[in-house]
């Protein structure tokens, strides 16, 4: 008898047993993968939630960070649904003081030793940090001419915000103040940071007295970094070089923070947030959720996309009452204000070759 070769006429019966087994195996693999993804999401969600809680509970909040709305510039108009963001960053050194108290509008003896306007364009392709010299002689609303860092002492954070808004005609969206001591913990949490030391020096006082900062790239630990951003007496141009050193340090921090091996290490990220949060004071709207929103928009940012420069000045001088001051360059301030208003600070930077600072 000849066996049938026409498959169409072949009897239809149950599928071979091995196909059932294969199907079951495939289903189990898919279920296992789905379960693994779910667990990873839950762990990741819990991890991120804990980070957010650490930041929100560790930072100090300023209930009234901004001046009266009637005195303020208008909000930036969104471009494709996203608006430019301006953040006023203040660095303060609490050595010899009882602590940092900027949570009210009351006058305080606290002064801003470092002052930066951080501008994030609507396209989120760059971050610009413009340093304002602390002795810049300008008009402080309601108080006449004075050094810009006196605004904090005269009227707390709201007056400092109003002063910078009046100077640059730009609305400040968020405020962040960091005690210099936070630099120490942040540096150690990152395992040290590499800074390019342009001018060698050795502090004449302080915990790092006599420590030599050689020219060139140096990896600094927390104590070394803290002394590096504080020092000014070792330089012929004093605070100008200190500002440059602070900018170099901040660029080094940014570069290492956004590095893949940092962001993919939960222990390092958690240590960073825990170390720096107690030394940060922010407006109440600048919480972990707001930071996360900014971070998402800047996810493709590279270290080279961060530009830091100092607001141009006309050098140093003496006020009518005998104070040593930094003279404002009103033309440069007007040009930068115009560029910010058009969200074209990058054009100004390129025109004045400020990509690597000044």
Instruction: Give the termini separation.
Output: 98 Å
Helix-strand pattern: HEEEEEEHEHEEHHHHEHEEEHH
How much helix is in the residues? 25-40%
> How much of the residues is beta strand, in percent?
15-25%
* Low-pLDDT regions: 1-12, 38-44, 96-100
Q: Using only CA atoms, what is the Rg?
A: 27 Å
Number of strands: 13
Structural topology:
Elements: H1 17-58, E1 60-62, E2 85-92, E3 114-120, E4 127-131, E5 136-140, E6 144-147, H2 150-168, E7 174-179, H3 181-189, E8 193-197, E9 216-220, H4 222-230, H5 239-257, H6 260-263, H7 266-276, E10 280-283, H8 288-297, E11 306-310, E12 313-318, E13 324-328, H9 330-341, H10 345-351
Helix pairs in contact: 1-7, 3-4, 3-7, 4-5, 9-10
What's the quick description here?
Helices cover 40% and strands 19% of the residues. The chain is of the alpha/beta class and 358 residues long.
What would the keywords be for this entry?
single chain; 358 residues; alpha/beta; 4-stranded mixed beta sheet; disordered N terminus
Explain this structure:
The protein is of the alpha/beta class. It is 40% helix and 19% strand. The protein has 10 helices and 13 strands. It has a 7-stranded mixed sheet with strand order 1-10-7-2-3-4-11, sandwiched between helices. A 4-stranded mixed sheet has the order 6-5-13-12. A hairpin with a 6-residue loop joins strand 3 (114-120) and strand 4 (127-131). Helix 3 runs antiparallel to helix 4, helix 3 (181-189) packs antiparallel against helix 7 and helix 4 (222-230) packs antiparallel against helix 5. The longest helix has 42 residues, at 17-58.
């Amino acid at each position: 008898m000849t066996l049938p070769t026409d498959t169409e006429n072949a009897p239809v019966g149950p599928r071979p047993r091995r196909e059932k087994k294969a199907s079951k195996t495939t289903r189990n693999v898919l279920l296992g993968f789905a379960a693994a993804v779910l667990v990873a999401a839950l762990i990741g969600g819990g991890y991120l939630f804990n980070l957010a809680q650490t930041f929100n509970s560790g930072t100090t909040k300023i209930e009234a960070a901004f001046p009266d709305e009637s005195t303020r510039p208008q909000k930036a108009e969104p471009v494709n649904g996203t608006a430019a963001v301006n953040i006023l960053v203040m660095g303060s050194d609490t050595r010899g003081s009882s602590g940092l108290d900027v949570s009210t509008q009351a006058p305080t003896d606290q002064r801003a030793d470092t002052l930066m306007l951080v501008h994030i364009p609507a396209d989120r392709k760059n971050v610009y940090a413009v340093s304002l010299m602390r002795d810049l002689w300008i008009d402080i609303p309601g108080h006449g001419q004075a050094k810009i860092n006196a605004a904090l002492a005269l009227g707390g954070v709201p007056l400092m915000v109003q002063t910078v808004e009046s100077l640059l005609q730009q609305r400040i969206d968020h405020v962040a103040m960091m005690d210099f001591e936070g630099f120490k913990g942040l540096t150690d949490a990152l395992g040290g940071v590499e800074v390019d030391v342009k001018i060698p020096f050795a502090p004449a006082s302080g915990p790092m007295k006599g420590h030599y900062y050689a020219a060139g790239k140096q990896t600094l630990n927390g104590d070394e970094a803290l002394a590096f951003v504080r020092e000014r007496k070792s330089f012929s141009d004093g605070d100008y070089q200190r500002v440059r050193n602070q900018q170099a340090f901040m660029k080094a921090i940014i570069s290492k923070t956004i590095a893949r091996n940092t962001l993919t290490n939960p222990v390092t990220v958690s240590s960073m947030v825990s170390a720096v949060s107690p030394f940060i004071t922010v407006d109440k709207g600048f919480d972990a959720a707001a930071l996360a929103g900014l971070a998402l928009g800047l996810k493709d940012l590279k270290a080279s996309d961060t530009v830091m420069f100092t607001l141009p000045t006309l050098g140093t001088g003496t006020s009518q009452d005998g104070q040593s001051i930094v003279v404002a360059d009103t033309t440069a301030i007007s040009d930068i204000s115009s560029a910010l208003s058009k969200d074209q600070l990058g054009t100004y930077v390129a025109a004045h070759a400020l990509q690597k600072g000044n």
